[in-house]
Write a structure and sequence with these properties.
213 residues; mainly alpha; Endonuclease Iii, domain 2; Endonuclease III, domain 1; 2 domains; Endouclease-III_FeS-bd_BS; glycosidase
């Protein structure tokens, strides 16, 4: 099976079984998604979704968040992993958006990564989810699933994984392919005990082939 055929099998499978895949973070606008994604680093979406309503009630937009103090914001996110850093990142992010982007959250990866707390993965999430730009965010799930399926070969870093995936996934499908791989890794292709018995991608999965050979 060629690499192209492998990708096509995966795309066809998910288009049939997960045509409406989307982020599990709850948000109403770009500001809320940006806050949620910053908070989600090394933290579950479920925990983030339990935390953000109180933040958005007190700080409904960038201008209000930019005026927040550490002591006021910290108690709202103390149940999240790395609350000290994330409190500083959120306030710093809001201030930079106000000072350098006229209060408007930027729409490109190079601009977004300038913001405190925003790395390439977060910037790719924002631009792909909100603007449907062909950017592939690579988290631990995407990294693991891509390697196991054989979509990537000897990719050592998230960037290498991103570059290999973008080579074969059609541009118009990149934004949803990101969710396909994340959700598959979250619920089926688990890190320690993958549920191979219920996985419809077994026929092309290199990891499964090694298990049964």
């Amino acid at each position: 099976m060629t690499k192209k055929e492998r990708f096509q099998f995966v795309i066809d499978y998910f288009e049939k079984h997960a045509p409406d895949a989307e982020t599990e973070l709850l948000y109403d606008n770009t500001y809320q998604l940006l806050v949620a994604v910053i908070l989600s680093a090394q933290c579950t979406d479920k925990r983030v979704n339990m935390t953000t309503p109180a933040i958005f009630e007190q700080y409904p937009d960038i201008p209000s968040l930019s005026k927040a103090t550490f002591d006021d914001l910290f108690p709202l996110i103390k149940s999240i992993s790395y609350p000290n850093n994330k409190t500083k990142h959120l306030i710093g992010m809001a201030n930079m958006v106000m000072d350098e982007f006229n209060g408007e959250i930027p729409e490109t990866v190079p601009e977004l990564v300038k913001l405190p707390g925003v790395g390439r993965k977060t910037a790719n999430v924002i631009t792909s989810v909100v603007h449907h730009q062909p950017n592939m965010a690579v988290d631990t799930h995407v990294f693991r699933v891509s390697a196991r399926l054989g979509l990537t070969t000897n990719a050592k870093t998230p960037l290498q994984t991103e570059q290999q995936l973008l080579k074969y996934i059609p541009r118009e499908k990149v934004h949803i392919a990101h969710h396909w791989l994340i959700l598959h890794g979250r619920y089926v292709c688990l890190a320690r005990s993958p549920k191979c018995g219920e996985c419809g991608l077994r026929p092309i999965c290199k990891y499964y082939k090694q298990l049964v050979s």
